[in-house]
Amino acid sequence: MPVIEGTRVPYDEIVALLRDGVPAERVAEYYPSVSAGAALDAADFADYVDSYERPQGAA
């Protein structure tokens, strides 16, 4: 599982916060080791991953 650089925090945990409406500037309240910039980078990575179609029959 990809993590935020320099941490052990999975990127999808951060993206879930952002998609739930938590501003990037407040992510550090939940994960002190994750900066606002890193949170936005995680969102960009998630968008990149989500841009690919899953193969037929994949869950």
UniProtKB/TrEMBL annotation:
Which InterPro entries does its entry note? DUF433 (IPR007367), Homeodomain-like_sf (IPR009057), WH-like_DNA-bd_sf (IPR036388)
Q: What is the protein's name according to its record? A: DUF433 domain-containing protein
Q: What is the source species?
A: Nonomuraea longicatena
- Top-rank taxon: Bacteria
- Signal peptide, first to last residue: none
